[in-house]
């Protein structure tokens, strides 16, 4: 495991160096009309908590828990096996095969069991010759692999970007496109989730071939990382639409340490407040919500956060808009991640997502804090205020304000809303214009 992890990291680093400086011109992206992924995908994935320790038993255990916790009913349908499910060699017909010890009955049997539970099985492969953990990739075998996945009853493919040929490193679009065509020609609806870490500005072209595409390198359960990934996605709203979403990577709510962190970095996790902020922000940004926690050890607070129907509904809004940053206030000086001001260091933001129907928006009032721990003495609860005109409402409109974390109506307001927000915390709201006035 440690060898495959270090080779994984090495290949990641080498690829990143090779991609540095490559510029891709914006292209007109057409939606991938394969009928799936019209709203961001909801599901669960093995990687963040279990790394290479994948097996049919694990998948079945977590699938059952998705059902018994009620999360499946709330929409978390995809159960995705990430890297390391494969045998190291293809069979005599060139087909990928599962590791027989971990998946003794094969993948088809597993997908049938999930199907009987009302769930959908997802799988992982790689556009290059090897996956990031060193298993056979799909390069040169796109058609046969797509056909195999369809035959196995797969409904979601995460397609990674390790071990590319020189030509693919220069331009991975033809290879990713070939898999898109191969999946579509199977006739089975398979959600195509590209995972090329945002390289080659894939957000500009992936919408024509995939249902979602990763826009960054990996997430891990650490506050600083969550904020960095949010930042990296802040200007990408124009690329999201039904059937095609920017993927900010998986949900770290309730995840204890990361597969990388266990070896290389201290074990980290988000506090419950940070986890709540992460989930609201990912929901507002219309990112797929793919859970990473071990459901057999999930604390109730984590289940409550990811099971919040109103936040899920904001993510799943039919219009498919992504949120964007509409206001930001910074005070004080941060040096090396620490507040070095005599006064307080504060950094608040307001994020807004337009919802379907008339005059309705999701809003996250966010107190970022700007330090790595929650205990900085220089932090405080901040009042975050936003005029309705900055949220797209006409100046004189009355607005109904609902707190979707507390499940509480806060009343009808005019002019603006102002609420106290704790450090690393959010207030997540749905605002609706009273009386049907149009967006300004
Ligand atoms: C990375 C990917 C991760 C995980 C891992 C598996 O490239 O970003 O999400 O899939 O590979 O090796």
TrEMBL record:
<feature type="domain" description="Alpha galactosidase C-terminal">
    <location>
        <begin position="348"/>
        <end position="430"/>
    </location>
</feature>
<dbReference type="InterPro" id="IPR002241">
    <property type="entry name" value="Glyco_hydro_27"/>
</dbReference>
<dbReference type="InterPro" id="IPR000111">
    <property type="entry name" value="Glyco_hydro_27/36_CS"/>
</dbReference>
<dbReference type="Pfam" id="PF16499">
    <property type="entry name" value="Melibiase_2"/>
</dbReference>
<keyword id="KW-0378">Hydrolase</keyword>
<keyword id="KW-0326">Glycosidase</keyword>
<dbReference type="Pfam" id="PF17801">
    <property type="entry name" value="Melibiase_C"/>
</dbReference>
<dbReference type="InterPro" id="IPR013785">
    <property type="entry name" value="Aldolase_TIM"/>
</dbReference>
<dbReference type="InterPro" id="IPR041233">
    <property type="entry name" value="Melibiase_C"/>
</dbReference>
<keyword id="KW-1015">Disulfide bond</keyword>
<keyword id="KW-0732">Signal</keyword>
<comment type="similarity">
    <text>Belongs to the glycosyl hydrolase 27 family.</text>
</comment>
<feature type="signal peptide">
    <location>
        <begin position="1"/>
        <end position="24"/>
    </location>
</feature>
<dbReference type="GO" id="GO:0004557">
    <property type="term" value="F:alpha-galactosidase activity"/>
</dbReference>
<dbReference type="InterPro" id="IPR017853">
    <property type="entry name" value="GH"/>
</dbReference>
<dbReference type="GO" id="GO:0005975">
    <property type="term" value="P:carbohydrate metabolic process"/>
</dbReference>
<protein>
    <recommendedName>
        <fullName>Alpha-galactosidase</fullName>
        <ecNumber>3.2.1.22</ecNumber>
    </recommendedName>
</protein>
<dbReference type="InterPro" id="IPR013780">
    <property type="entry name" value="Glyco_hydro_b"/>
</dbReference>
């Amino acid at each position: 495991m440690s060898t495959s992890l270090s080779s994984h990291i090495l290949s990641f680093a080498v690829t990143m160096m090779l991609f540095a400086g490559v510029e891709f011109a914006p292209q007109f992206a057409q939606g991938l009309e394969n009928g799936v992924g019209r709203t961001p995908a909801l599901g669960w994935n093995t990687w963040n908590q279990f790394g290479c320790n994948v097996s049919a038993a694990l998948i079945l255990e977590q699938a059952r828990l998705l059902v018994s916790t009620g999360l499946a009913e709330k929409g978390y349908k995809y159960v995705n096996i990430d890297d390391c499910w494969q045998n190291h060699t293809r069979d005599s017909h060139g087909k990928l095969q599962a590791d027989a010890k971990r998946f003794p009955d094969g993948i088809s049997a597993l997908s049938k069991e999930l199907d009987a539970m009302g769930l959908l099985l997802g799988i992982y492969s790689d556009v290059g010759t090897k996956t990031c953990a060193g298993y056979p990739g799909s390069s040169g075998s796109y058609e046969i692999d797509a056909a195999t996945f369809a035959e196995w009853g797969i409904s979601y493919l995460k397609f990674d970007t390790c071990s590319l040929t020189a030509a693919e490193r220069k331009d991975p679009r033809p290879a990713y496109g070939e898999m898109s065509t191969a999946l579509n020609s199977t006739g089975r609806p398979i959600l195509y989730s590209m995972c090329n870490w945002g390289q080659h500005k894939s957000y500009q072209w992936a919408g024509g071939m995939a249902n979602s595409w990763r826009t960054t390198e990996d997430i891990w359960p650490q506050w600083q990382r969550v904020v960095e990934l949010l930042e990296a996605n802040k200007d990408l709203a124009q690329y999201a639409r039904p059937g095609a979403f920017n993927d900010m990577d998986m949900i770290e709510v309730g995840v204890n340490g990361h597969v990388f962190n266990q070896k290389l970095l201290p074990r980290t996790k988000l506090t419950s407040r940070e986890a709540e902020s992460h989930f609201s922000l990912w929901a507002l940004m219309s990112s797929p919500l793919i859970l990473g926690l071990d459901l057999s050890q999930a604390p109730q607070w984590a289940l409550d956060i990811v099971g919040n129907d109103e936040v899920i509904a904001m993510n799943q809004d039919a219009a498919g808009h992504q949120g964007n940053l509409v206001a930001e206030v910074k005070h004080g000086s941060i040096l090396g991640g620490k507040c070095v001001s005599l006064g307080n260091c504060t950094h608040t933001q307001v994020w807004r997502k337009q919802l379907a129907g008339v005059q309705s928006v999701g809003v996250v009032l966010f107190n970022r804090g700007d330090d790595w721990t929650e205990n900085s003495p220089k932090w405080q609860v901040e009042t975050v205020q936003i005029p309705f005109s900055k949220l797209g409402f006409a100046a004189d409109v009355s607005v109904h304000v609902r707190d979707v974390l507390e499940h509480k109506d806060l009343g009808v307001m005019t002019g603006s809303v102002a609420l106290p927000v704790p450090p690393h915390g959010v207030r997540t709201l749905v605002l609706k214009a009273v009386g049907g006035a149009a967006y300004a």
